[in-house]
């Protein structure tokens, strides 16, 4: 992990297309601004984890539904 020290209005670049700005530091909070192309999604970590969990649930549900359908079709053939 890279750890950097930045002051308000200073920034870092990630690759050629992403810039992260320090907007405000207050008590134990830091506000950051992110400039990135629209095709690059930017999520807070807790939102990203929620999206991954929901995708896993949806994929699991789809597999279960396909298995149930397969079981039903196998019964019809017998």
UniProtKB/TrEMBL annotation:
It is found in: Cytoplasm. SUPFAM superfamilies: CsrA-like (SSF117130). The keyword Cytoplasm applies. GO terms for cellular component: cytosol. One of its GO terms (molecular function) is mRNA 5'-UTR binding. GO terms for biological process: bacterial-type flagellum organization; mRNA catabolic process; negative regulation of translational initiation; regulation of bacterial-type flagellum assembly; regulation of carbohydrate metabolic process. Keywords: Bacterial flagellum biogenesis, Cytoplasm, Repressor, RNA-binding, Translation regulation. Pfam families: CsrA. Belongs to the CsrA/RsmA family. PANTHER family: CARBON STORAGE REGULATOR (PTHR34984:SF1). A translational regulator that binds mRNA to regulate translation initiation and/or mRNA stability. Usually binds in the 5'-UTR at or near the Shine-Dalgarno sequence preventing ribosome-binding, thus repressing translation. Its main target seems to be the major flagellin gene, while its function is anatagonized by FliW. Homodimer; the beta-strands of each monomer intercalate to form a hydrophobic core, while the alpha-helices form wings that extend away from the core. This is Translational regulator CsrA. It comes from Candidatus Aquicultor primus.
């Amino acid at each position: 992990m890279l750890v950097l020290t930045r002051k308000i209005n200073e920034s870092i670049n990630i690759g050629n297309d992403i810039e992260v700005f320090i907007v405000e530091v207050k008590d134990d909070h830091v506000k950051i601004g992110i400039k990135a192309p629209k095709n690059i999604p930017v999520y807070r970590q807790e939102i990203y984890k929620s999206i991954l969990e929901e995708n896993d649930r949806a994929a699991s549900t789809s597999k279960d539904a396909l298995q149930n359908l397969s079981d039903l079709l196998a019964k019809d053939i017998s």
